[in-house]
Each structure stands twice: as C-alpha cells, then as structure tokens.
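Hey, I was hoping to borrow your eyes for a little while. No rush at all, and the record is pasted right below:
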Amino acid sequence: MIGNLDHSTLQQLWWLIASVVGSLFLFLTFVQGGQTLIFTLADSEEEKSLIINAMGRKWELTFTTLVLFGGALFAAFPLFYATSFGGAYWVWMLILFTFILQAVSYEYRKKPDNFLGARTYEIFLCINGSVGILLIGAAVGTFFTGSRFSLNLYNSVTWHTPFHGLEAAFNLFNLSFGLFLVFLARVLGAMYLVNHVANEPLVKKARKATLLNLLLALPFLLIILISLVTMDGFAVNPATGEIFMEKGKYLHNLLGMPAVLILLLGGLISVIYGVVATAFLGKNCGIWFGGLGTVLVGLAIFSLAGYNDTAFYPSLTDLQSSLTIHNASSSKYTLTAMSYVALGVPFVLAYVAYVWKLMNAEKLSLAELAGEDAKDMY
C-alpha cells in the first residue's frame, strides 16, 4: 500500500510524522521545566534532590526525542536540515551546548570530588531548561517569521546576517514563542512533580506553581495567537512552485483546515483543564491532560507552517529560496523506504510506554533517596 502512494502524499505524510515527533518533544520538555523549578520550589536540599531525581528519571527521553526529531527532518527534508543547521548554526550549537550541560550535570552532580560543586551543575540544569527551550522556541518561530538566507543553483546556502540564527531571538514573535514554551514547560514540570513525588509540602507548592506559570505564559500566548491571525504569510503557488506573500495566510490556513483549528483549541483547553485539575481540584492526573494538550497544540502549529501550500521555512532575503515540504523533501524512493521502516515505530512507543509505567509504578520519596540505592541517585 505504501508503495502506491504518490510523492506528494508521502511528503505530507512525513511532515505529519516529523510534526508528531516534534510535538512529543514539546511534551517531554516537562523535564526542562522541572529543572527550572529547582530554585523556586525547593526549600531544602531534600526537596531539591526530589525534583532533580524525578526529572533525572526522564531526561534521556527528551534528549533522544530531540535527536529523533532532527533525524526525521534530516532524512525526510534534507534541504531544510542543510539550510537551517548549515546556516543558522550558532543557535543550534547553543541549543546543543545546553543539552550537553544537562547530560553532564546529571552525571556529575553527586559524584565524589566534584570540584565545581553541586550548585554549579544545578545552575547548568536551569540554563538547559530556560535558555535551551527559549532558543528552540525562537527557532520554531522562524517557520512563520522567516530567516535571512538564500540558496544558489546548487542549493548551497548563504546566510545574510553574521549572527547565523541568533537574530531569531530578537524578533517579538519568536521571543514570545520561546518564552511561552519556557513557561509551558514549567507548567508541565510542576504537574509531573504532583503526579510523581510523594512529598506533600513539595506537591502543595507544585500545585500553586502550575497556575502561576500558566498565568505567566498567557501574555506570550496571546501575542502568538494575535500575530498568527493578523500576519502576512509565505504562500506557494501549487501549479508553479512560486513563493509569494499572502495577507492573512495563517488565518486562511486555520479556516481552510478546520481539523487544525480543532487541534489548536482542543489542545489549549486540555492544558488549561490540566492546570485547573491540578491547582484547584486536587487531582494528580493533570500532567496527562497538559501533555495531551501540548501535543495537540504542537501538531496544530506544525500543520499551520507546512500544509495548505505554505512555505515552512521562509527566506526574507530571497522569497524563491523559501522551503516547502515539496521542494525540500527527499526522493519518492527514500520516503517510501522510510515509511516501511516507520511501521515499527508504534512498537517502540509501546515499549517506551511500558517502561515508563514500570518506572512510575511508585512515587519518588525521601525514603528512596536515602535507601540502599542512594549512590545511584542524581
């Protein structure tokens, strides 16, 4: 059946697959959000260790999913990968550096003869959860605001700014996108602590943190939504492949793709309900509503950027250098082969879900941190 799909359908399918992976990554940033709560929720070393070890059990998932997202884009849309990672390399290098800091921090924070001290590694975790997520949000924001690059006849990229991607963080929309993701990650991190930690004083503070960080995220969400429905977009003529500016393009995408509008509204409602359930109803399951909502919002954002004849990586320097899911994709043969391999992904996800359930079978407590396995804790 897959072999009978035409090239255009495969391109849309792989944009959907990449979008799903990217949206799952956004959910898993609860780890980064939890890391930024170390200095705001913990009133003692014990509470700090609870937060770090709760997040430490899942930190590899976030990093692995980010790598998988990059790998999916590299395989399915190699021209985008080459253009973005080859041109905007400073922003991607900084993002990678913050994730290296995260890995090193979990490995060495509690090691004996740690000459930097545990607090230094805790600051590193905070940098990963704030600066790293902010830059990722700014990079995703360029799907709508564009970047200053051009491609020659041989698809060699030239970046027309010395900042090589860092300039994205100085755009209001991109900055708002990044800050929204930072506070959303903190909301998810707090909800995960409520679900996973057996320490009532810490859980009580985490419940309050979910509401506070949602309120802090709302102004940036409003900027994003207002911008999306009012800004001009980068449209594609499906007959010629020509890129042109279209007034209200992303509003047209929302109205032209009702399923995307439903995903966006449903996702936002789900996140809000997760916060209400956690902060006001005393429930511990808010992370699942918040996580589902985050995935749905992520799918809506990526769909707005890539579908309905839209350039998902626009060029502000040369409109015709802008990338679409059609001109940036791999060949039909490559996408077909990858699609067969992707049939095994649900089994991998099922295994991850099974392991997750086993790891979360019991809530993390101070007794566990002081038990016989204490030497293996973060």
